[in-house]
Structures are given as structure tokens and as C-alpha cells.
Amino acid sequence: MDIIEILATTGLWAAVLRIATPLIFGTLGALLCERAGVLNLGIEGIMTFGAMIGWLTVFQGADLWTGVAAAFAAGMVFGLLHAGMTVNLGLSQHVTGLGITLFASSVAYYLFRLAVPVAGTPPTIEPFAPIAVPLLSSVPFLGVVLSSQTAPTWLAVFTALIMGWVLFRTPLGLAIRMSGENPEAAEAQGVDPVRIRIGCVMVGSGLMAVGGAFLTLSAFNSFFPTMVQGRGWVCIALVVFASWRPGRALFGALLFALFDAYQLRLQTVLGGVVPYQLFLMVPYVLSIVALVVMARRARVPQALMKPYIKGER
Amino acid sequence: MWLALAAPLMAVLGAMILSAGLIRLAGVPALDAFGEILSNAFGSRLAITETLTRATPLMLTGLAAAVAFRARIWNIGAEGQLYIGALTVAALGTTMTGWPAAMAIPMLMLGGALAGALLLLLPLLLRLRFGVDEVVTTLLLNFIAVLFVSLMIEGALKDPMAFGWPQSMPVPIEAELPKLVERTRLHIGLLIAIVLAVLVYVLQSRTLFGLRSRAVGLNPDGARFAGVAIGRTLIVTGCLSGALAGLAGAIEVMGVKGYVTTDLSPGYGYTGILVAMLAALHPLGVVAASLFAATLFVGADGMSRALGVPTYIADVTVALSLLTMLVALFFTQYRVRR
Amino acid sequence: MPGIGSGVEFEADGPVLELTGITKRFGETLANDGISLTLARGEVLALLGENGAGKTTLMSILFGHYTPDAGTVRVKGRTLAPGRPRAAIAAGVGMVHQHFSLAANLSVLENVMTGTESLWSWRSARADARRRLDHIATRFGLQVAPDALVADLSVGERQRVEILKALYNDADILILDEPTAVLTDQEAERLFATLRDMRAQGLSIVFISHKLDQVLAAADRITVIRGGRVVAERQAAATDKAELAELMVGRTIERPVRAASCPGATVLQARGVSVDTVLHELDFSLRAGELLGIIGVSGNGQSALGQLLCGVRRARAGTLTLFDAPFPQGDVDALVTLGVGRVPEDRGSDGAIADMSVWENAVLERASHPPFQRAGFVQADAARRHAAELIERFNVRGGGPDHRIQLLSGGNIQKLILGRSLVGEPRLLIAAQPTRGLDEGAIAAVHERLLEARANGAAVLLISEDLDEVMRLSDRIQAIVKGRLSDSIDTGQADARTLGLMMSGASIDGVTHAV
Predict the structure, then answer these.
(1) What whole-number distance in Å separates Cα of residue C504 and Cα of residue C51?
(2) How many angstroms separate the CA atoms of B177 and B155, rounded?
(3) Contact residues on chain B for A297, CB-CB shorter than 8 A
């Protein structure tokens, strides 16, 4: 199979959707936080914790969707912590986010190790099964691709569409965007930017955690440390790439996933010639490139990273 | 000065109280656990040397973070810079067989430092030129750097005589750092780190450069009005930070491991950030904070074997102390500010 | 909820707005001192006064940004709850701020719609909002493309959006704060036509201004405010520019207590200097022992001029010479070495570094010069001694050399800044808004130092918004309006009337500048 033929396999495109799913959730979560004006660098840790708690909940006997819900709830708790420190106390969003990443990751590993003592092979659970959509599955090529996707993937796409609608077609979305652009103006017009920011950071963090949970409940079926592998940071770059728009975030995540899926398959073709590490570097390098390219052009929410202190004029 | 100590002390206390909760979750009384940690970290001569050895790279990555953060350069790439420094030592080391140690060691340290500095230079330039936030770029570079190391130690720098996990060629004997205490892992890297902490302190508090660098970090507009060259100051400060992180990797290889693997660092770069914040970015405080962190990490290993609390409790406590430190700083500085 | 307020019944011929005894103090400054005024329905009232007179504070209290220390506000016969913009909006008061409250990345429609619908509606009624906005825009002649991004709009258009926001919320009392400060002539004309229209449709308007021409043309009644108090009220038809100018600046302009100057050689000279799009073809010159005052309302290019002369900005055209050599543009160290003292306009961000100590701030700009530096090491003792001298000589109170500078009051920080500029016996002193935000005592101290420097043979360039100050200190005065300088006049030949006119941009000798 040569380089071009890979693009024509259903396996590749099925992988694209699978790989994109945690990126979609993570990017949407970060996007929501940033639209309200808060940079949430806790994403890597929150995704890790979400992966762990989702898996652990199912391992203890709950069903898969309860696991997803547990991850969402846990994410919201970390979001509340982040918002409490950055929105209410006005502490540095950079340092708080990093602290939460390190805290959430280490707590995740700790709790996991408590629940699951070290063994030869990590225990597994029964992950989400692919859903065969009745009519779609008979469509050639696309049908095969779509039918090998699990429920959370569909949820991710759905969430992107919903977020697009909410942000741009509802009063709530307008209030969110105003809080991220000019919180003083928002306040003068009857919107409470503090509550909006707290709410968005909580929901956004919940989404991030769900993205992590996908890794353990669908993509793989067990949890192991460092499984998030920097996906959280890639998501932060993707938010910039998407110009803070959910539709473009969906597109960006798919594009990245395409590169990632492609390089995996490319390894089998070129593996002997080109070291696999170069392929693995691609997503990270692309993220940096995306940041540089968009740095000039992007319309950043104007109040991003500026704490809002009521009454200051 | 006492007011300055209040925040870290409050932070550590807060972190330990919260960790105690997690320890209870493991069914172990918290005080027992902390006691075990202390005795495992300091209970014997060997233990003390282990703790000090563990603290050495943390001092350097802590200094790297402290130097950068003071100038508002968010260098989160110490992990990658550390690995690049280590790799450089492995690469250059093989060319220095036969050299006298007094030459090989400084040269290799310089090489590692330089490599670390260069790695931070790229994100820094991207920020100065294009306004790209260096937090994300330095983070992403960490992954790229580790992959690069993996590539090299499986390829050009591979040690053909090693079985099992890939590792680099070992550094020659001449390049190994002399031990401070016989039959332990404690090496002179500790002294080098402490000396550097003092030098950084002197640089920051007594030199013209330190004054200007601090001004840039506190108020770039005011610094510019006073004639400070902002770009140049940031670049030099950044290079210093990267160099310190690169040196951490170099010293780890030359003093402890002797060769490079992909698990050379259990997150020293990230822990260094926690150490720097706990020290309120003070170079001498970094020495103390890194000892605190090392105590937890070394002690937790033994404590885990004895009491069954997972070793990650050390990571949790150190991470918590960053968060509690931020809150503590808020409350102590709030009083002093008008 | 905004938008429901204006249906309140009240006596048809009572005043629509009544402020009684409004007093407000900020720290040591008494911004409003027992101000009372009324506004009738369908009336256009102008609040006239210099910068710092207290006009914006008064209107901010009305709109609920601040709570007054004393006094009440009654809107349409009902007392208004203080300190809440939402209450003001609900009562039908709308404010168009001098610095627009808009989100640049959102569209006009989005800016207007924010906060007008229930947060939990599942769908924004955009079509309805669009229709309503269009209706209002047409009614008052304020058309703007609803889907245009605010970032792409001209300043005049952005102001229209600000006004539309207020009208969309059913405001029938409109406050405009310095509405023409950033408009071109045509845009200002258009605005006044709109205001006339609004008045015809029953709206009541208060606008704050210092521009005499416009105030006379647009207002029915004029209230003059000076030093936080109402000093006069006039019907527009019954007064003229000259009277207003004198009322605004006060009759008692003391003859300055300056000694006669004997100016020496030319120190600083500018010919056709332009900076970005902010300053155009400036001509001025300054001799040793002379004090040149540049007077103007803020926002006319003073900041850029100050930055240029302090070495933080470069010109794009023209020649600028210092001591007969090219001015070292953008080179702070060269300026300091040549003996140029600089007092920046923004004390807080440019003048001092809040978290650094007094001695560090005192010495930072000349830290590379001996005796403060030797072989790269800061000679802290020498610096501390120097700072102690400064503190002593310039009467800086509130802290010693080792204290953090932010512990000092604004006045003392300014004294330190001035002191460090003067300590090297400079031959040129640039002072930008040196008394902004200071109390009387500190102002007097600063004035004394400026005159002292002049008496010692330094050339002093003073940029200020305070007419009184400029008249008291300067030998010659030029006005800066929209980035251009008027010709220079001798202070001896200037009076309140001439200066008031110069500041509003009218010509004094046939040379017109854009208003």
C-alpha cells in the first residue's frame, strides 16, 4: 500500500473520528472558558482525571454513561476550583492552571493506585461498542466509517453544534461573549460577568474531563499514567487555530486527527526508513505552527486573561 | 523577612492538611504517614544522601523557573530543556574520552547549558516577534524534545552494548561527577547547584542586570521609560533560565545515571515550577523548597512500602502546595499593598 | 430589567431630572461640592467646565457608576437608587460615555442586544431586535450597518452605536460625556442635528463639553462648573463665547510670580515634526531659561508629544534638534546622559515601578552611570544616599529609600520623579501633566520646582491641561488641538478669553486649525 492509497481506506477515516473525539471535547471546553475570558491551563490534568474517574466508576460496576457523567462532574469541580482562584481572587490564570494540571494529574494517579494496586497487566473494562446507524451503515465507504464510531464520538459532534448555536444564537451566548470581550460593558448592560465566567469555566472543564474519559471508556479500555500525552496542550493550540469558533474547532480537531491517523499508518509503509518518533512529533509541531500562523490574524477575546474587578472605573 | 516566610509556611501547612485527607482515604493515619516520610528521608546516612541527590536537579529546574517567572517569562519547558541538556552531554561526552576531568566536566556542563538555552530561545523569539504565548509553545516543545531524545538514543547515540530499554552511550569516566560521599549517589552536582543558587541570588539582587530584569518583570512600561532594553533583557534572562534547566539534565547524567534514557526525569521540569512558586521565586528559597520536595518524594517511596499509601501522595502534596501558595500570597500581599 | 422604565407617570411640567446637593469626595479631592441642577423635558442642557471641574463625576453619579456622599437624584419625580446603572437604565436614563463601552469583536446588533433578553431564552430574537434597532436608527437618523463589526467602524459610527444602545433601552434622558472630543467637524455637525431631532421628539439631553462654539450652538441652557461647584447658569441665547470663557476659567487668574526671564541659546527645536497619525507638522522652539507651556484638552496628541520628547517614541517626519545636534529619538540613555530631565504623563505606569523601592526608582534611569554602578554591580549604598538626598531636598514624605514606592502618596511620588529629573541640573526639562491628580500642596511644590529650574537656566517644556497652571508658569504658550500646534503667544499678551478660544481651536490671528 502506498502513501496515497492509505487515504482511501475506511480504516483511516474511522481512526480520524476516533482520534478526534477527545480533541473535540477538550477544545470545546477550552474554547468555552476562553470565550468568557479565562484561559484554563488545567486542561491536561482535568483530562487525565476525567480519564481515570470515568474508568474507575465503570470498573466499580456502574454503566458507561454513568462513568461519563462522573467525569463531567469531576471536571466541573476542578473548574470551580480554577474559577474560584482566577475569577474571584483574580490570581494568575497561567500559574493556577498549571497548578491544577499538576494537582489533578497526581490526584488521579493516587486515587487510581489506591483503587487498583499494581499488577502485571492493568485491569480492563468493557468499553463503548461501535454503533451501527440503521440507514447510514448501508452507504458505501462513509457508512463503514460512521458505523465504527462509538456513542461519545457522536456526542462530541453534537456538542460542537450545540455550542455553536448557544454561543451565536442565544442571549446566554451573547452574554458569554460580551463577558470575554468587555466585562465592564457587560456589567453596565445588566450581565454579571463573574457568574458567567464561573459557569463557563465549570462547564468547560466538565467537557474537558469527558474528553479524557473517552480515552479510557472508548478508545482504550484501561487507564495508565501519562495516557493523555499532551493532548490537552494541543487543544489549547487548536482553540487559537479555530479562532474561538466551535465549528472551526470541530474542523481543526478532525484535521489534526487526520495527520495523526495518517502518520500511524505511514509508519508501516515508511517505518524502516523514517524513525517513528518523527511521525509522533507531527501533532506537536503542527500545533506550534498553528499558533504562529494564527497569532497575527486571530480575533482574540479582548478581555482574555484580564481579571474583572467590579466597580473599577 | 518573617512576613515573607509566612506565605510558604502557610502554604506547606495547608497542603499537608489537605494531603492528610487523602492519606486517611488510604486508611492510614496521616501523622504516621508523615512520620514515615521523614524517617525515610532522613533516618539514615544513606537516606539523607538520597534526599540530597534527589533535590539537586530540582534546585536547578527550580532556579530555571524562578529566573524566568520573575521576568514574566512563562518557561514551562524545563523538562524538555533538561532532556536536551542531557542528550548534549551524551553526544559530546563520547568525544571527550581521554580528556582530563577538570576540562571535560566544565565543557560538558557548558554544552548542556547552551543546549537548554537554545531550546527556550525559539519560543521566546516567537513571543517577541509574533506575540505567541510561550506557555503553550514551551509545553509542546517538551514532547518534541523527549521524542527527539528517544530518536537519538535509538539511533545515532545508541549504546550497542546495552540490553533491554534503549539508552545512550554512557559518558566516559572522566566526565562522571565525583561523589561527595563514598558508596552513595550523592555527587558534587549538589554543590554546583547551591553555588548557582547563590550566584543567581547575587545576580538578581546586586547587579545592574538583575535590577533591570526585575523592572521588566514588574512593569515593562516603567522599565522602558527608564531606558531598559526590554527585548534584550528578556532574551538574556530566558537564556539563563534555559541554561539552568539544560544544566539540570547534564548534571543528572554526569552525576547519577551516566547515560540518557527516556525516563531520565520523573517530571523534574514540572516539579521545578512548583518548587519555584513555593520559594516565591527567591533563589535561596528554591534550595529550601527543593529539599522539601525531595524529602516528600524520597520519603514517600519508603513510606509506601511500609504503610501502603501510594507514592503519588508526594506529587499531590507538592502540587497542592503550589495552589495553597498562590492563595497564601494573595492574603499576605493583600495586607501589605495599599 | 432595562427597557421598562419610561412608562412612569409624573407631573407633565415638572423637571424630568433633579439633582440636589450632590457631594462626592475621592480621597483628598472634593470632586463635587453640593451641586444642584435641573433638566426640563425636551431641554438640552450643556455642562461646561475645564478638565477636572467635576462634570464627569456628576454625570457618573447620575448614571449609577458612583454613589454620592450626599445629595439626591430624582428622575421624573422619583428618587433614583444610587450606585446602580441598572436602576438608572430602568428609569430611562442612558449614558454615552466618553470612552466607549463597546466590544470591538462583536457586531453592532450584538453590542446593542446584550442584556436585553432573558438569559435563558433558547433563541435570540434577532429579527425582532434588528427591526427595532432599524426603527430607532431611522427615527433619529443614526444609521449604522447592524452586522458590521464595531472594530471596523469609524469613531463617529461607534458613538452612534453607543447612542443607539441607550435608545434601545428606552432612554428618554440622554447624557453625553464630551461627545465631540473624538469627532471630526462633519461628524460633530451630524451629531448636533441628531440631538435637535431628539429634542423635537421629546427627549431631554445633558451634554458635557468644554467646546464653547458647540455648547452655544446646541444647548438651550448652559451650566458652568468650576472646582466642583456650579458657578453660573446662562440661557444660550443670552450669552457669548467671551463671557463663557471667562466663567469657565475664572476671573481671578493671578499674575504669575515669575521673575523676568532672560532666555539664552536655543536648546530644543522642532520643524515640521509628525508622529504616526497623531501629530502633524509641529513647529516649536525653546531657549534656555524659558518655560514654554503647551496647553490642550487631553486626547489631542499630548501623550505622543510627551513620549517623543522623553525618548520613548520616534517621529516619522520633520527635524528635531537638541543642543544643536539631532535629538536622540528613542534613546533614553542618551537623553539622560545629555542632561534632559523627564517627568512622564502617567506616573503610575511610566514614572515609577510600584513594587520597587524608592531608591531603585530614584536611580533606575541612570543606573548604568557611576557612582551607581561599578563593574556591573549596583552600588546600592551610593544609590540609597542619593535617594535620601532627593527625599530631603524635595521634601518627599511617607517613606524612606528602602520603602516600596507604592506606599507613598501620588504627590510624593511625583515629587520624587521631579526630584530625580532635576538632581542632575538638567539643561532641558520635559514635564508632561506634572500636577495631574495632585492636591494643592503638592501642586504648589511642583510649580516651585519648575520655576526654580527655569531660573537656573534650564529650558522647560510644560504640557498641561490646566489653563491656570500654564498661565502662571509659562513665558510663552502654544495650544495643541487635534495634533497640531498653534502659533506661540507671549503670556503677557494672553488672557482667559484668548486662551479659551485657542484651546477650542479657533484662530487667533487668521490661522485656523480644525476644531
Answers:
(1) 13
(2) 26
(3) none
> Which tens digits make up the pLDDT trace of A210-256?
999 999 998 888 898 889 988 999 999 999 889 899 999 999 999 98
The interface pTM score, or ipTM, of the predicted complex is 0.89
| Neighbour subunits, B (≥3 Cβ pairs < 8 A) | A, C
Question: What's the pTM?
Answer: 0.85
CA A310: distance to chain centroid?
31
The Cα–Cα gap between B79 and B116 comes to: 10
CA–CA distance from C87 to each of B330, B331, C95, C171, C260 (Å)?
A: 34, 34, 13, 12, 57
> For residue A260, which amino acid is it?
D
Pick the CATH number of C5-103+171-248 from 3.40.50.2000, 1.10.12.10, 3.30.70.270, 3.40.50.300: 3.40.50.300
How far, CA to CA in Å, does C155 sit from each of C21, C107, C150, C192? 35, 15, 9, 16
Domains defined for chain B, CATH in brackets: 2-336 (1.10.3470)
Residue-wise pLDDT for C173-218, tens only, equals 999 988 877 676 677 888 888 888 888 888 999 988 877 778 888 8
Question: Which residues lie below 8 Å from residue A20, measured CB to CB, with a gap of 6+?
Answer: A153, A156, A253, A254, A256, A257
The domain segmentation of chain C, as residue ranges, is: 5-103+171-248, 266-503
CATH topology of domain A5-117+132-297: ABC transporter involved in vitamin B12 uptake, BtuC (1.10.3470)
Q: Look at A99 and B322 and tell me if their CB atoms are within 8 Å.
A: yes
CB C176 within 8 A of CB C96: yes
Chains with 3+ CB–CB pairs under 8 A to A are B, C
> C266-503: what fold?
Rossmann fold (3.40.50)
> Is A176 touching C (CB cutoff 8 A)?
no
Q: Strand pairing partners for C269?
A: C285, C321
Residues 138 through 157 of chain C touching chain A, CB cutoff 8 Å: 151
Residue type, C423: V
The number of C-beta contacts closer than 8 angstroms across A and C is: 75
DSSP helix/strand/coil, A3: coil
Angle at C485 between CA C484 and CA C486, to 5 degrees: 125
| B155: helix, strand or coil | coil
